[in-house]
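Homework-ish question, so no full write-ups if that breaks the rules, but can someone show me the predicted structure for this set?
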Amino acid sequence: MRFKPFAAISLATVLGAAAPAQSAAGGGAEPAFSADRFRADVTFLADDRLEGRDTGSRGHEIAAAYVASQFIALGLKPGVENGGWFQQVPFRSATLAGPVGLAISGPGGSRSFDNGADAIVGPSLAEEKQDIDAPAVFAGYGIDAPGEGIDDYKGLDVRGKFVAILAGVPEGLPSEIAAHLGDDKGAAAARHGAIGLITIYTSQYARVRPFASRAGGVRRALLGWVGKDGAAGEDAPGLRAGFILGDAAATALFAGARRTYAAVRAEAEKPKAHPRGFALATRVHLQRSSAWTSLVSPEVIGMLPGSDPALRDEVVILMGHLDHLGMRRNAKPGEDAVYNGALDNAAGIATMIEAARAFAESGAKSGDRPRRSILFIANTGEEKGLLGAGYFAHYPTVPVGRIAAVVDLDMPLLLYHFTDVIAFGAGHSQVAEMVARAAGEMGVALSPDPMPQENIFVRSDHYEFVKQGVPAIMLATGYANGGEQQWKAFLGGAYHRVNDDLSQKIDWESGARFAKLNYLISRALANADRRPLWYKGDYFADLFAPGAPRAVPPAGTSTAAGAGH
Ligand SMILES: [Zn+2]
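A: Not a homework solution, just the prediction itself:
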């Protein structure tokens, strides 16, 4: 799971009631799922000697070799065109080289601001040297969603300008749509011709993610994949800079405008408020230099060929991210310095391997092979911004049009006997029906998203495939049966910390059950007569798969993680 700095924030925590568990006997001889094998994989991948599996590190390379060797043992076929197991992803790493020049000028004169104190400006992956001077415009929350009745750019001319926007999204949007709109702000600014995006803080956002907590972004390296054309992969083409302003600089930015920054901020505090945009009377001058280095890191890809000649050219992808955060800098001697990522995401990779084993073994024992082919992928660069999956979605080893669906495995919280799950992304397509059936078979309930403020829908690799128009889901273990306390304790105390390690009380039996559930879902996707269709009228279908055929959702389908809020 990646940390998402500028995603939507809604303080409302909606706790969904779990649907009653169904019980139904699974038919036929099901493959066995082993807690011990699950434990073996997690134990190796989360070992200190893998040094936190950072993208591009030796520890990650060793982990990738381990996953490839498991694929070989299961009899999978290499998933890369050249007959290899590794799709090598080229990355660019950027750091700031020297001080950043940032000045705001207007009716009150010109004033310079310090990077790290008044503003947070990171490095650029697109231009090594930049000198940009342009007027500024305020555009509310910076949301471009006419379908939801929100068009913050209406009536504003932002072409060639810096657009300043409030962090977060207004309250009241369904959770997955809110998460997407929070993530889409850079692209929205680019679509309207802006060259820079300035994020300013509402008081509410400042309480959740204080400005000071972001100051490390000034020193941190930024990583991005590089396309086959040699240019950095771009979600927001034409947008040359994105940064955060603190209160003093934001106040200066609004000098001489129709309203002050304080007035806008006060309005944003009110329930259901949605401040409107207006032209500003100031210009922004940004100068920065970035130093680049190159690295490569692999996606590990294995293929189980399908059995049905009419369907085996289509693939179902089952994937999880193998990378994590590496080593902790500034650890004192004797202190734990390894981000082991036992649950994030050694557990997801172990789930994938155990599901792959189930497919391979039922094929070998009873000739019960899935009709569609299945691609198993261990992603890289997830913690750095869904980079490996983003690269694969742009340069897939099978054409995107032949990817029927994606099941992502990220940070399953396997610290208790889960009795419900949240299926992020499922409610938009017929995948919902398959998830409901598989969960029902295991007596597991489906719950709505109980933590919409976490924006989980856009924080893992499946989202990169949603953006390519492919139905994609990720299951999270739910709040029932003690899950709520476990989630809160984990997010507050272990998530992205060195203690997400093997000292946690991992419930290995839950790992085996989670593997079985994801196996049943993948198998249903692989064996269905027709690939899952997006639902008619669905927001993400209309946005990312406008030309694709649609299905009418059956009455009573409500597995959308974001339903109801
Ligand atoms: Zn993570």
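Now go work out the reasoning yourself. Hint: Residues 1-2, 344, 383, 496 surround zinc ion (CB under 6 Å).
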